[in-house]
Amino acid sequence: MSPEQIVYWIGVLVGGFVVGTLCSVLPLVLAIKKKRPGLAVLSCICCIVSGLILGLILAVPVAVIFTVVIILLKKPNQSDAVEVILE
């Protein structure tokens, strides 16, 4: 591999990571506001991985799908959270 190819692939990986991170901001913030930290972390990881795989082509649809799912879910009840912890 020539140095130009190495620099190109490093740029592709860094760009994909940045794109995935930027796309994950909206679902991450919404999930944190809805008090769903597990879904927040999952959406962030999925957006970053999809950004690394195909960049904006895949990261944007993944972010939109997670955003819609998070919006449609209601906030968990505090009593449900206590019951899950106690079990």
Notable traits:
87 residues; mainly alpha; elongated
Q: Biggest β-sheet: count, sense, barrel?
A: none
Strand residue percentage: under 5%
Query: Radius of gyration over alpha carbons?
Result: 17 Å
User: What is the overall pLDDT average?
Assistant: 88
Shape: elongated
- Terminus-to-terminus distance: 55 Å
Structural class comes to mainly alpha
Q: Which spans of ≥5 residues are poorly predicted at pLDDT below 50?
A: none
- In total, the number of domains comes to 1
Overall strand count: 0
Helical content, roughly?
Answer: over 70%
List the helices and strands and how they pair.
Elements lengths: L2 H21 L1 H9 L3 H18 L1 H17 L5 H9 L1
Structural account:
With 87 residues, the chain is an all-alpha fold. 85% of the residues lie in helices and 0% in strands. It has one domain. Helix 1 (3-23) packs antiparallel against helix 3 (37-54), helix 1 packs parallel to helix 4 (56-72) and helix 2 runs antiparallel to helix 3. The longest helix has 21 residues, at 3-23. The protein is elongated and about 60 Å long. It starts with a helix and ends with a helix.
